[in-house]
Design brief:
alpha/beta; Rossmann fold; six-stranded parallel β-sheet; four-stranded mixed β-sheet; disordered C terminus
Length: 447
């Protein structure tokens, strides 16, 4: 077992037994579960909407090379600059070069999982550049020195009391602030940073090929401020976020908001086509879009796993997953957690280090059931397991166990010997962790 797998096992064991942690998660996911059905009512035929979205993403991914080239051509015509980054280091180097050129001391950043993926904040800090998270949830996590807990709601695992205590310790505020008061404290601090920052960094929910633009959807307006106030705007986006046409947003924006938070549409939806033009009064003087690969072409060249690139990062599969709801986001040890993270992380960061995530699943299929674009997530988890075996990433004991299983399964006499007390003794002696967290009564019922 790798170090990564051991850390995952330790963290997941600890969190699964943490009753208070589970209470907070269930409370927040409960609110999500109450809101989503109401949001879905806006679709006359939800099944058809999801099917059309999947087909649109299929077309975008199958012709990704053409779509990216069309985007670059159109975007650069309006004065934007496109940078292609094969990996996280190339992306970081390009950002640092821009920061050096602009003599950047302060950078404001809106919520972006891709920047978490390349560990941008750490790189900026090491180079003496202050990077400020402007999304409230991300700001809370940055204050606490933690990575995002969830793709959509970064501080889902914290209660309002936890945040009040954190603000008291880090910002010197009263210990009993209400959520509204804490939001105002954060707003006052962050508004100053927007004015000071030389560079703003955002992600993108979608790249739009036909008009050469990026689309950003949010609820706080911080992304708009991050890309409008500073003189330089940098977008970092995974190449899989492509959609062919601006008209596709009429489907994808409501899907993303409904499956992400239960809203019919998020509060702020922006289409950004480049830097400020001569006849425009607002916007950055320069705009860069960094198209990040970082392992995505590994998935693209895999005919079965390619489907995972359809993901629009709504987070619905995390909220539906019984494993995620018990162990939480940080236990995964990866940028992307939950079912989608378990599918793509082994291909982005190495099957040998992260194959264990694909086994951390009940295979109940709930993730597939709730996916906004109908990705067959539970089947892809099984495919990951198959690929890890094909690559020889199994232990000797595991190989021998399956050989013994095959031999015994093909012989009726040996199958009969497996009944009753013999079976119980074998299971209990070979699999020590089988009943570690189960009562004897439940264990006897299920054995």
């Amino acid at each position: 077992m790798t170090d990564t797998a051991n850390i995952f096992k330790e963290k997941s064991t600890s969190k699964a037994g943490d009753v208070e942690h589970r209470r907070k998660i269930n409370f927040n996911i409960g609110k999500y579960n109450a809101a989503v059905p109401k949001g879905k009512e806006q679709f006359l035929d939800l099944h058809l909407a999801r099917e059309r979205a999947k087909n649109t993403k299929w077309r975008a991914i199958e012709t990704l090379d053409q779509q990216l080239e069309e985007f670059e051509l159109t975007f650069t015509k309006r004065g934007g600059k496109v940078i292609w980054a094969e990996n996280s280091q190339q992306a970081i180097d390009e950002i640092l070069n821009i920061c050096k050129e602009k003599n950047c001391k302060t950078l404001v950043k809106s919520k972006s999982m891709v920047t978490e993926e390349i560990h941008l904040n750490d790189a900026l800090q090491k180079n003496g550049i202050e990077s400020i998270e402007t999304d409230l949830g991300e700001y809370i996590q940055q204050l606490d020195g933690e990575a995002p807990y969830h793709i959509v709601t970064p501080a889902m695992h914290k209660s309002k009391e936890d945040v009040a205590k954190l603000f008291h310790e880090k910002l010197g505020t009263a210990i009993d602030l209400t959520p509204t008061e804490m939001t105002l404290v954060a707003r006052n601090i962050l508004r100053e940073k927007y004015v000071q920052a030389e560079i703003g960094v955002t992600g993108a929910n979608f790249i739009i090929s036909d008009i050469g633009a990026v689309a950003v959807t949010e609820n706080e307006g911080n992304a708009r401020l991050s890309c409008a106030f500073p003189k330089t705007h940098i977008v970092i986006v995974g190449i899989e976020k492509m959609i062919p046409s601006v008209t596709d947003l009429g489907l994808f924006w409501p899907l993303l908001s409904t499956f992400g938070t239960g809203q019919k549409i998020t509060v702020y939806n922006s289409i950004i086509t480049g830097p400020k033009q001569d006849n425009e009064t607002d916007g950055p003087e320069e705009m860069y879009v960094i198209l990040l690969d970082n392992g995505r072409t590994n998935i693209l060249q895999n005919p079965k796993q390619r489907e995972s690139l359809y993901c629009i990062r709504c987070g619905a599969c995390l909220n539906a997953c019984p494993v995620y709801k018990n162990i939480g986001g940080h236990a995964y040890g990866a940028t992307y957690s939950g079912p989608i993270g378990s599918v793509i992380t082994p291909h982005l960061q190495g099957m040998d280090e992260f194959k264990h995530l694909s086994y951390a699943s009940s295979l109940c299929g709930n993730c597939t059931e709730v996916c906004a674009v109908k990705i067959n997530l539970h089947e892809l988890l099984l495919e990951n397991r198959h690929e890890s075996v094909e690559e020889g990433l199994t232990t000797f004991s595991e190989k021998m166990a399956w050989k013994l299983w095959k031999v015994s399964s093909l012989k009726r006499g040996m199958m009969n010997m497996g009944n009753g007390a013999i079976k119980n003794k074998v299971v209990n002696s070979l699999f020590k962790g089988w009943k570690q967290h189960r009562s004897d009564l439940n264990f006897r019922k299920n054995i």
